[in-house]
Amino acid sequence: MSRPRILRRRESRPRSGAKRTLLGTIRQLPSYLRLLAGLLTDGRVSALDRLLVVSAVAYIVSPLDFIPDIIPFFGQVDDVFLLVMAIQRLVKRAGRDTVLDYWRGDPRAISDASLAAVVGAAAFFLPGRTTQRLRRLIQRW
Description:
By secondary structure, the protein is an all-alpha fold.
């Protein structure tokens, strides 16, 4: 009987690590929204990417989500997933220096590795179909 208990502990470790990653990012949502607001007014950001910024902010503040925000934690996971995917794209297209001009937090938080970790953590909690839909939404831009 002790064997199943050990297996459960091992299975919960990735979940707790993913949850910790997401909670840290959720706490920084205001900083990410300020980042997007700054990028919206920057001339170095293309018109198409500005539209992406507006769309990401609209999705985050909208009560209509794939997972409603009223559901604690899980309601914010899809917002974080979309937000970080949009920031990854902006870092690639507008440049890391442009993004850092508006980021007030730790620069490591928007490194490629950190952003990829957040996307992976969010995907861990999202249903597969929701993850696919959100990825397609970003890729269309």
